[in-house]
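Bug report (template v2)

What were you trying to do?
Predict the complex of my protein with zinc ion.

What happened?
Run completed; filing so the output is reviewed.

Input:
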Amino acid sequence: MGIKIYNSLSRQMEDFVPLNPEHVSIYSCGPTVYDYIHMGNARTALVTDIIRRYLEYRGYTVKLVQNLTDIDDKIINRAAELGVSAKQLAQQNGDAFFEDSQRLGIHPADVHPKATEHIPEMISLIQTLLEKGVAYVIDGSVYYRVNRFDSYGKLSNRKPEDLLAGARVEIDERKEDPRDFDMWKAAKPGEPSWESPWGRGRPGWHIECSAMAMKHLGTTLDIHVGGEDLRFPHHENEIAQSEMATGSTFAHYWIHIAFLNIDGRRMGKSEHNFILLRDALDNYPTEVIRHFLISAHYRHPLDYNRESLMKSEGAFRRLSNCLDALKKYDGQLATDETTTSPLQHAVQEMKSQFTDAMDTDFNTAQALGAIFTLVSEVNRSLSAKNGTPPAVFAQAYHALNETCQVLGIYDAEAQDRDGDNVEQRDNLINLLLEIRQDARSRKDWDTSDKIRDRLKELDIEIQDTREGATWKIVS
Ligand code: AMP
Ligand code: ZN
């Protein structure tokens, strides 16, 4: 079976056939960098990361482009509130976005274009649309003439009369049609602006993505990804601009990621109910947060709550314990052909279920199910001591490592590093205890107390017993 993707454009499952049989191009709408990213943004970014990793696992080379919207009303307003320049604010939050993404184990995109670095491309795209009569200028702003694009509404499946309902569309009396949207905004005093054939101004959000996607991926791309909220009007407008300008299909597959909710409502900045990704990462390991964010299929809403994170914590512990126990079998010789063991069968079963799940519109929830079924089988075989050949344990170890790496829920090297760090920490504490013991035997109580108190500040508690001092971590 090949990969199938639920295409938001056709509203059905489709076989995935990239334009080039070996290479896949993906454009993902990145953050508007006016603040730190929250867990909802992280869900969208993580799903994109996993789609890319899985396509690579299936042998494709992938070019992923994820933009940064670094000029926008929200940035301008926030910068004014904070008394910094829009550029400074966008730079700081852009850096924070890369830092947070890296902490979540998200591989950087191949290109992270910034809107402010693509103004000439945006101007040239707007000019093409003006030449084609699909746009008009009013007082230095340029608007897209929606009624010229017959298939406007095809992505969001809205009829012309519904196109305004439920969407935030700026009321502007000067527009020919209320559905028309601005691609270039005439400069307002004090706002950042750039030279253009229509006077100074700045680009609209939709033209930014059309221009950056086509600059880095060509006129037609394979997959366009974004959160559900972007389907209308953002993506609808991206299609209208790009397809009218080039006459070609803009993107073949549209993937929309459902919301991360909290208390049944979408997590969002405007809702004031968000948990920042960096705060969550201070409280839970990366793998736990990744497990949680992919524990539901991306087209289903997911609810952020403590219980679910605790479940993911338990799952991660089960997985690491199992892989720790299997590690010693790593490098065992291949089993001879005649050996059959139930675990060997379970390993094959897991691999094929994992691939089936991920092939079916990247169903991470089912893929996790396959992985954890094998974890249970391994634990059973390990405790049963039923003569499972070591080479079969080695196979299980490899299969689990490989599939967990696609999802990024276990990193064998990082675990080894953590293990080494813990050992080093323990050795250092024991050394301090030895020094303290020497001080005590010299009746140097000041040094002895200092060591005890300073360790206490680091949440390490010393207890003096008749057998000598012991320590434990308290938090
Ligand atoms: P923004 O910075 O608001 O433009 O959002 C960046 C990305 O995160 C976009 O693809 C949004 O669709 C997505 N996003 C925002 N809120 C959520 C949420 N609660 N759940 C999932 N994705 C979200
Ligand atoms: Zn976009």
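What did the reviewer find?
Residues 413-473 form one domain. Residues 412-441 form the longest helix (30 residues).
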